[in-house]
Amino acid sequence: MHFADALTAAVKEKSPICVGLDPNLQKLPEGISRDPEGMLEFCKGIIDAVKDTASCVKPQLAYFEILGWEGMKVFWETCEYAKENGLLVIADGKRNDIGSTCDAYAEAYLHEESPVDALTVSPYLGSDGIKPFIERCKTNDKGIFVLVKTSNPSSVELQDLPVGDEVVHESMAQLVEGLASECLGPETNLSCVGAVVGATYPEEMKYLRTLMPHVPFLIPGYGAQGGTINDVLHGFIPDGTGAIVNSSRGIIFASSGKDWMEAAEKAAKKMAEKFNK
Prior knowledge:
This protein has 277 residues and is α/β, with parallel strands linked by helices. The chain has one domain: Alpha-Beta Barrel (TIM Barrel). It contains twelve helices and ten strands. It has helices at 3-13, 36-50, 61-65, 68-84, 99-110, 131-140, 156-159, 168-180, 202-211, 229-232, 249-252, 260-276, and strands at residues 17-21, 56-59, 88-95, 118-121, 143-149, 162-163, 166-167, 193-197, 217-219, 243-247. An eight-stranded parallel beta barrel has the order 1-2-3-4-5-8-9-10, surrounded by eight helices. It has a two-stranded antiparallel sheet with strand order 6-7. The mean pLDDT is 95.
């Protein structure tokens, strides 16, 4: 199934909640060893806790890479486990390059048998650094989320620089919409090319939604970074789809005690209830 159609179906069935899997070894809860085995146990436990509530999970590659090859083994096992439990998987790696190197990144994460459904992509080498990913998306029913307006405070240093009558992130949005319009889902009219748009910039998000009508939004910055439900609603299209909202710390580290799984499940359900209203 086309990625945007599959994402929309998952959102309608469960919620627009995306749970960020950021298994920081220093924050793992009581009873979990701070090694690859403990990381895998923690990730699987979070998946078990949220699988009936969240539409997708977003493993952050940095936390797996820090453990070398063993960490990457845990990453792939985590992705496979999430898929087995009915969740879409968005690998947060912010990959980008050009030529054969970009093609290799695309093949590594978005090949036909990969448990990864989508990958975050940095666009600052231009369309040459995006198109190889899009080709895999078209062929293998995968997706990408291109960084457009990120949630961190210093994003303004580059993304808000003026370019004629616009700023950089507005020009980027138009580039993304142009690429997205070439690969729309037959059921939703949304694209397999998505955009990362931070909850911490709600006014910008409101305008970016008008610039990218066919683009699914992945919205970080909710909760711990200060974004509210009223902020992120600007990213949705009128029928209540077209966006997923990520929460990491607020769910996966809802408790540092032995009740960490129960706390994560409760936090995810509470967040989903707010959005499903």
